[in-house]
Amino acid sequence: MPELPEVEVIRLGLSRKIIGLKIQKIQVLSPKSFLGNPNLVQGQKVLNIWRKAKILGVELSGDKTLLFHLKMSGQLVWKGESGKGEGERFIGGHPTIDMVGQMPNSHTRVIFSFAGGSHLYFNDQRKFGWVKVVQSAKLKVQSEGILGKLGPEPLDKGFAWQVLKQNLLKHKNMPVKVAIMDQSVVSGVGNIYANEACFDARLDPRTKVGSLTDEQFTRLHHGIVKSLQDGIKHGGSTRAHFVDAEGHKGYFLDYAFVYWRDKHACKVCGTEIKKVTLGGRGTYLCPKCQKAV
Ligand SMILES: [Zn+2]
Question: What does the record give as cofactor (predicted)?
Fold first, then answer.
């Protein structure tokens, strides 16, 4: 499943391709994958692309916004006029072999055709993902349910360590790693980056929230922001190798300190990385660098 950095990499890449283009035609091949009236976006121009947690918002003229949620298996493929050559194709999301093949394919759910001849394909093998058209003005007041329920955006300036502390204290008895993955505490932290954030903060992921000191909350806050930023810098990551909007692979995992590195030596102290299960998820830690409180 794409995590926040992967979605941010798509936002950056797609912005370079479709901002300023007019949607000439929209074809909904799977009604389940498109919520709202597709005719509302026809003829509208792409003004901006933003992200909140793992949701992409494509802001259009005419007070419309298209929301995309890739969920488990969604991907976005943009193809230029000819669809050939470097920079003429633009891929992001769940990696599959057919994402570099013929478009549309059997997993294509929605096709956006732009004036000028390029296309954006929303593909989704398992159909958990969706595209939704909403009024932009409504989103601004956060009345859109899905956005309202999400916690603060970790890469916004307003996300201070005190905000994290306050939100985490709702879960005093929860292990810290499980708590930072609660989307109402902070939005968009999945399993990979939760593991990395705890390592950066030198905290045992099993530590109970209620026992953290202010200094540890500060370190944890730093760890969350830094691991997400590193993920974006390295083009995102998934175990199957994330492919970004221009077909570059993401190699964040080569830079990870603990995630997926059990039985390997800690990059800081050489101790063997240990794997445990916490809240049903694979959890990786260095027993020496990450102290229990
Ligand atoms: Zn270590």
Answer: Zn(2+)
